[in-house]
């Protein structure tokens, strides 16, 4: 093996020489990522099973205790607190994804139907806010929902909220913030699949006397499946780890897994439990990815041959 | 495409409104002369002047800039070399797949997980050197860590479009390795490298979560400052600051798009 020569990029070389050059090139980046990313991530998985020390440090005695605590049991018996937090996070991510798809899907068609020179502009219009810092956008929602602003005035006069009060912190404010934060990432993948839509298939469905719903289901939706899937992933997974929006628009009672992790690494100083919550977040994301993949395989059996 | 139902347009405008209305509200409030509350008290530019003279805001802006530039430099160099090393070496299959996975990991992992992993890493490294105490250095390291992946992905996709035949041709014309790098590979990679660096810089400016976890008391960045000011009670200077950042972001995007179209329009020689 070692002595054999091969031709790469037009000149004679040996495999070891190529490997030597390649290793030199990738060494810096992979060393950096190894020290600051891969090792710490692995460490996090270990930390999740350690215990909190008497005064907040970490003791390396391994238990399942943190997982049990996340499931609701602690030294004082069962409480719904953590279960509620986990459930709320999953629910918020799901509803946000559904809302984003409901608004984003029409938007994708709307953009795709415009003349070519408008499309780029409209896409930019939708992507630009996502480049503005999340804290600023959330802060902007706080201002918009403030007590003396038009939206609150309308709500006060309709009797939805008491006189003189702001529209945040509320659950509705969190959803507004979440949808406006995630919407660009829903629209973009949807648009790319809508744009490539083969409309002859839709016409064929109509010719075969399919009703409106069936035409949509089999003529349009089936073709958009890859885009829908990408949109769901890009919306759901970041939503799951969110903590800024819930913190700024939902108030102290609206805790998500993200807030829980932040508390454990901050004021509570219980890193092992924070790591456990983090591990749960990663696992939940992986399960979601895997589930969506199953759905896509069932929904688009023809896609495998085509792509 | 067949004609779309009317409601699709309405739903789309609803989406656009949701994206823009809060930003618009802040922009309007930044010109409001009322100090407390949101009652309209008349037009003023005072808050912009006050913002420009505010020590805390200026130092946060400086920190953000320094952090963005330093981490982007590190990530661009490391990420570009990584992309070239991965794409231009006949690595065994398992290694290529493993590397792909490794590069994609920071892109798909939620910020907060990266953040706590880094917090843990710095806590361990602090035992060994005081450099790793929370501050600008840890921020730069943290940002570069996830930026490397983005640069490597962007440069890698550009690298895939440059055929091996050009390197071969250069070699046939007796170019040495140095010349091939400087005259053939890098010039063609440049748009990819610049795009990767711009993306990395944007991500750095955009980041809140990771910064929130690894920053120290002396290394407040703009997003951290705004977040903290929400806790302490907002002053209209923050409205002005937010508006400036939003306008700056939009200008940067328009500029990038304009440069892109101009470059595409110039005929290739």
Describe what you observe in this structure.
The complex is a heterodimer of chains A (307) and B (269). Chain A is built from 13 helices and 6 strands. Chain A has helices at residues 15-47, 65-70, 81-112, 116-131, 134-144, 150-157, 171-195, 199-207, 212-240, 244-250, 257-265, 271-299, 303-306, and strands at residues 5-8, 11-14, 51-52, 58-59, 73-74, 77-78. Residues 303-307 of chain A have low confidence and may be disordered. In chain A, 38% of the residues are buried. In chain A, a hairpin with a 5-residue loop joins β3 (51-52) and β4. Chain B is mostly helical and 269 residues long. Chain B has a single domain, classed as MetI-like fold. The mean pLDDT of chain B is 86.
Helix-strand blueprint:
The complex is a heterodimer of chains A (307) and B (269).
Chain A (H helix, E strand, L loop, with lengths): L4 E4 L2 E4 H33 L3 E2 L5 E2 L5 H6 L2 E2 L2 E2 L2 H32 L3 H16 L2 H11 L5 H8 L13 H25 L3 H9 L4 H29 L3 H7 L6 H9 L5 H29 L3 H4 L1
Helix pairs in contact in A: 3-7, 3-9, 4-7, 5-7, 5-10, 7-9, 7-10, 8-9, 9-12, 11-12
Chain B lengths: L5 H24 L16 H7 L2 H33 L5 H16 L2 H16 L9 H26 L2 H9 L4 H30 L2 H6 L7 H11 L3 H30 L4
Concise overview:
Chain A is mainly alpha-helical and 307 residues long.
Number of strands of chain B: 0
Q: How would the global form of chain B be characterised?
A: globular
Helix count of chain B, per DSSP? 11
Shape designation of chain A: globular
Please tell me the total number of domains of chain B. Answer: 1
CATH level 1 class label of the largest domain in chain A: Mainly Alpha
> Please, what is the oligomeric state?
heterodimer
**What is the rounded Rg of chain A?**
25 Å
* Low-confidence regions of chain A: 303-307
Total domains of chain A, how many?
Answer: 2
Radius of gyration of chain B: 23 Å
Q: Helix and strand string of chain B, N-terminal first?
A: HHHHHHHHHHH
Largest interface: A-B, 87 and 90 residues
* The CATH topology of chain B: MetI-like fold
The helix content of chain B, as a percent range, equals over 70%
Instruction: Give the number of DSSP strands of chain A.
Output: 6
């Amino acid at each position: 093996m070692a002595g054999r020569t091969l031709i790469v990029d037009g000149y004679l070389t040996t495999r070891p020489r190529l490997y030597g050059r390649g290793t030199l090139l990738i060494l810096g980046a992979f060393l950096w990522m190894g020290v600051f990313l891969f090792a710490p991530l692995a460490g996090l998985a270990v930390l999740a099973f350690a215990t909190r020390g008497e005064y907040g440090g970490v003791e390396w005695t391994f238990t399942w205790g943190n997982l049990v605590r996340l499931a609701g049991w602690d030294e004082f018996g069962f409480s719904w607190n953590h279960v509620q937090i986990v459930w709320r996070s999953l629910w918020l991510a799901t509803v946000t994804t559904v809302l984003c798809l409901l608004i984003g899907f029409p938007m994708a068609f709307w953009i795709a139907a415009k003349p070519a020179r408008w499309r780029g502009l409209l896409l930019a219009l939708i992507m630009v806010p996502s480049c503005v810092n999340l804290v600023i956008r959330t802060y902007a929602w706080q201002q918009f929902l403030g007590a003396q602003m038009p939206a609150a005035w309308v709500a006060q006069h309709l009797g939805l909220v008491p006189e003189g009060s702001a529209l945040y912190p509320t659950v509705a404010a969190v959803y507004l913030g979440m949808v406006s934060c995630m919407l660009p990432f829903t629209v973009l993948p949807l648009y790319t699949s809508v744009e490539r839509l083969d409309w002859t298939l839709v016409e064929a469905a109509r010719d075969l006397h399919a009703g409106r719903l069936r035409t949509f289901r089999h003529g349009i939706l089936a073709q958009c499946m890859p885009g829908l899937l990408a949109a769901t992933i890009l919306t759901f997974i970041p939503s799951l780890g969110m903590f800024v929006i819930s913190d700024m628009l939902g108030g102290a009672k609206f805790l998500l897994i993200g807030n829980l992790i932040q508390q454990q690494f901050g004021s509570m100083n219980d890193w092992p439990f924070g790591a456990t919550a983090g591990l749960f977040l990663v696992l939940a994301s992986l399960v979601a990815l895997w589930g969506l993949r199953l759905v896509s395989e069932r929904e688009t059996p023809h896609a495998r041959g085509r792509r | 495409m067949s004609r779309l139902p009317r409601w699709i347009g309405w739903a789309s405008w609803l989406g656009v409104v949701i994206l823009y209305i809060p930003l618009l509200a802040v922009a309007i409030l930044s010109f409001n002369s009322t100090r407390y509350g949101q009652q309209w008290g008349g037009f003023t530019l005072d808050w912009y002047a006050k913002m420009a003279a505010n020590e805390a805001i200026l130092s946060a802006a400086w920190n953000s800039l320094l952090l963005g530039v330093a981490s982007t430099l590190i990530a661009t160099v490391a990420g570009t070399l990584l992309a070239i090393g991965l794409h231009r070496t006949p690595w065994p299959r398992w290694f290529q797949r493993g590397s792909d996975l490794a590069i994609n990991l920071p892109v798909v992992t939620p910020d907060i997980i990266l953040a706590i992993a880094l917090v843990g890493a710095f806590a361990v490294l602090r035992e060994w050197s005081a450099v790793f105490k929370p501050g600008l250095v840890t921020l730069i390291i943290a940002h570069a860590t996830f930026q490397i992946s983005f640069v490597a992905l962007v440069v890698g996709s550009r690298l895939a479009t440059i055929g091996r035949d050009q390197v071969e041709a250069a070699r046939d014309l007796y170019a040495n390795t140095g010349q091939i790098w400087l005259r053939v590979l890098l010039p063609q990679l440049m748009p990819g490298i610049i795009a990767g660096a711009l993306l990395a810089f944007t991500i750095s400016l955009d980041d809140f979560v990771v910064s929130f976890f690894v920053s120290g008391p002396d290394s407040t960045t703009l997003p951290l400052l705004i977040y903290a000011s929400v806790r302490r009670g907002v002053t209209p200077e923050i409205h002005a600051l937010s508006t400036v950042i939003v306008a700056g972001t939009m200008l940067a995007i328009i500029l990038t798009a304009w440069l892109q179209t101009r470059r595409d329009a110039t005929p290739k020689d």
